[in-house]
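Run: sequence + fe (iii) ion -> complex structure.
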Amino acid sequence: MAEIKELFQSADWKKEKHVPVIEAPEKLRKGELLKITVSVGKEISHPNTTEHHIRWIEAYFLPDGEKFPYQVARFEFTAHGESTQGPNTSTVFTNPEVSASLKSDKSGTILASSYCNIHGVWQNSKKITVE
Ligand code: FE
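>> structure
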C-alpha cells in the first residue's frame, strides 16, 4: 500500500527548483516573533503558467521532544494567467513566496511543503533554537 509520506520529495533547493526554501533566523529569544518566509524557485525559477505552477505552500512547527506538528500557515495560489481569452492570457500570476510568523517557547523545527500541479509534493525543514 502506498503511503502519502513516500510521495514527499526532497533535494538540495539550490539544484532542484521545486524544493521549498525556508528563510528564518536560526536563533531567537523566547517571546520574540519567529518570522519565516517560504518560497519555491529561489535559486532556479519554477515555471508559473496556467499549465504548470505551484498551487500551495504549507508551514508547520514541531517543538523539540513533541510528537505532533502544529500547522502554522497554509497558502493557496490561485491566479495562473487565466482569463476569458484562455490560458496564459491574463497578466496576473501569483508568485509562490509567502511570509508568516509565530511564537514558540521551545526550540524546534520548521517544516514546509509545497505542491506543483504536475511534479507533486516537496518538502524541506529548518532547525530553530529558542533561548
Ligand atoms: Fe513543476
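>> summary
Strands lie at 20-23, 27-28, 34-40, 54-63, 70-76, 97-102, 108-116, 120-130. Residues 64 and 108 are 5 Å apart (CA to CA).
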